[in-house]
């Protein structure tokens, strides 16, 4: 399926490295928001038995997704499997094996940006949302960072640091 998507032009403005970093930003914001939900105690009576365990467990799932995004970003920026494995406390071959399917999915999504659902009528994006629609993700994440990060004095704290694609001549 090589049909175009509504966001192809926006996506073309970004390098794959920048798109991977944007996905990592998005997943990190999800982790932060999930952790923030565990800080306040006022709603504890509204949570059933085990409810806070459920929230904490969800953080693990969100953090795992962020880890996959971090590995994808590091590979896109040229980090070796040895460098990645060093930070995970595993060897390069084990690191590559652990994340190979995720990287294959990431790379394949640029060739096949969506698949049809089981009904055959609805498009399902293959790229993570932040990479599929990067202009919206930049706007949303810049606002998220400005509102939550203390001592950040940048109008575009997320998008200003991304490596943009060079225009084709």
From TrEMBL:
The lineage of its organism: Bacteria, Bacillati, Actinomycetota, Actinomycetes, Kitasatosporales. This is Uncharacterized protein.
């Amino acid at each position: 399926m090589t049909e175009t998507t509504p966001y192809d032009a926006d996506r073309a403005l970004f390098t794959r490295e920048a798109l991977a970093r944007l996905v990592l930003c998005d997943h990190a914001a999800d982790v932060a928001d999930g952790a923030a939900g565990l800080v306040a105690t006022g709603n504890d009576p509204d949570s059933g038995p085990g409810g806070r365990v459920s929230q904490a467990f969800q953080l693990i799932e969100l953090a795992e997704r962020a880890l996959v995004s971090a590995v994808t970003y590091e590979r896109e920026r040229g980090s070796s499997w040895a460098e990645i494995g060093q930070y995970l406390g595993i060897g390069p071959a084990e690191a590559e094996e652990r994340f190979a399917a995720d990287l294959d999915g990431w790379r394949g999504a640029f060739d096949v940006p969506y698949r049809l659902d089981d009904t055959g009528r609805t498009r399902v994006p293959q790229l993570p949302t932040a990479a599929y629609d990067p202009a919206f993700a930049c706007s949303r994440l810049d606002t998220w960072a400005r509102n939550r990060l203390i001592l950040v004095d940048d109008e575009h704290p997320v998008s200003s640091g991304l490596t943009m694609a060079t225009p084709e001549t």
